[in-house]
Design a protein that fits this description.
Length: 151
């Protein structure tokens, strides 16, 4: 018979690990590429959808409109995004990646893939086959439950 756990204790342990891991990852991204995490999130979202309004980006990223606006402004000052009038809404402009934004995002992603490839190879020597796949399934299920169906 399996080990008995207090209800919620296993997921609490997951979040206890995810919090510091996320913060360390954010610091690494910001230090390595000089790109604030909010700007990175905006660039990633725009790469996936093409153009969006700040409120739509906020909903997609589960971040406040104000934080997204500051990140869009920062990315705009760096020449990585541009805004244009939105025919559907006078006050909410459309935001899109510039060619420079596409390039800097590609460069950051390439550098991350190299680093993550090294880390993954190291982890594979210490984990059972399929552990990373199982981890990804759990995190995707949590994401679906928490982001798509908040309580």
């Amino acid at each position: 018979m399996g080990v008995m756990h207090e209800p919620g204790s296993r997921l609490a342990a997951v979040f206890d690990v995810l919090g510091p891991l996320y913060r360390r990852g954010v610091r690494a991204v910001e230090q390595e590429g000089g790109m604030p995490v909010g700007v990175r999130a905006v660039l990633d979202a725009l790469a996936g959808c093409g153009t969006a309004t700040v409120p739509a980006l906020g909903r997609t990223l589960a971040l406040s409109r104000q934080f997204v606006q500051r990140s869009v402004d920062d990315a705009g000052e760096r020449g990585w995004v541009r805004t244009r009038e939105n025919p559907a809404h006078r006050r909410s402009v459309l935001v899109a990646l510039t060619p420079a934004g596409e390039q800097v995002l590609a460069d950051v992603r390439d550098a991350e893939r190299r680093e993550l490839g090294n880390l993954e190879a190291d982890l594979d020597t210490h984990l059972d086959p399929g552990d990373l796949d199982a981890c990804l399934r759990v995190l995707r299920a949590l994401s679906t439950r928490l982001l798509d169906h908040p309580s």
